[in-house]
Amino acid sequence: MRWTEFDLDGGLVAIDRPIADVCDIALIDLDGVAYRGHEPVEDAARGIGYLREQGASTIFITNNASRLPQDVAAQLSSLDIPTRADEVLTAAQACARLLGTVVEPGSNILVIGAEGLRVAVSEAGYRVVDSADDAPAAVAQGFGPELGWKDLAEAAYAIASGVPHVASNLDLSLPTARGFAPGNGSLVRAVQSATGVVPLSAGKPSPAMYDMAVKAVGARRPLVIGDRLDTDLAGARSGGYLGLLVLTGVSTGREAILAPPELRPHLIVGTLAELAGPHPAPQLGANGWWELGASAARVIDGVLEVSGAAPGKEVELIRACASAAWDASDHGIDVDPASVPDIRPTR
């Protein structure tokens, strides 16, 4: 499924009406987008509510494999984002589906992870086991804060015997209330280092979960909303989906400006409240300036130059800088990262 209204192989997309009006389903990340740890993200409930008012379905797509969908739904509902369990798709559920491509139904599966993954694998019809000595047909690995060396060792023993290794996701870090901590990808790398086996992965940046959600409802105009270039937006690009970066989480405006083609968003907003407005894209003007409102940017001899930054218009400047930097890069000009400012939207 690919959009026909927009060029999804190019740069930023121009939308002259509210962004929420263009999609029939929004595939929304959780951490950094809908909430931050146990706290709400500013304007998330407002923006998601507007999407729903305009008739769009909402599915929350998360690389978190440790939690049950009903628990995620309950947390969202407590943050003024009413959500049902069937509106949540976790990497654990996607991992369980991916197992079906490498093992027979009803097989023994060594699950290295928290309750969310164990339940998903069991509900998919497999028998969950805890040891490499239980003749598993595959190893399913997902994040769990209680995991230790013994768990990773069991995974390594089983994989070394020749069974497939399927990971829920490969995120190296995850956001917590205290900052960023090692994610499932870091634990997967430990097992991979011990075995030399590269695992299959169900989570983003694979577009598999997006595909599952879109197919389930028969959507034709999906919008991916995320805060991470290397997972959410990379998945959007690789799957041919319209991708929106919201600057309330991991990836910054500066990182978007410097992003390679496979990680670039099609839309950039400061908060989800901007879903209620249009998304003007910069236009190339005189002397190589990419202009949007009072903001402008260009690249001269590999140096990004900016002009017209105004308080409250930081997102416009980020878009202008992104267009200038991406255009230069696509024409073989390396942009000096030192010349790219760290532009943060005013909250």
Automatic annotation (TrEMBL):
Molecular function (GO) terms for this protein are: phosphatase activity
Name this polypeptide is given: HAD superfamily hydrolase (TIGR01450 family)
Report which superkingdom the organism of origin falls in.
Bacteria
Q: Which UniProt keywords apply?
A: Hydrolase
Return the SUPFAM superfamilies for the record.
HAD-like (SSF56784)
* InterPro entries recorded: HAD-like_sf (IPR036412), HAD-SF_hydro_IIA (IPR006357), HAD_sf (IPR023214)
Organism (species): Rarobacter incanus
Give Gene Ontology CC terms.
Answer: cytoplasm
Which Pfam families does the annotation name?
Hydrolase_6, Hydrolase_like
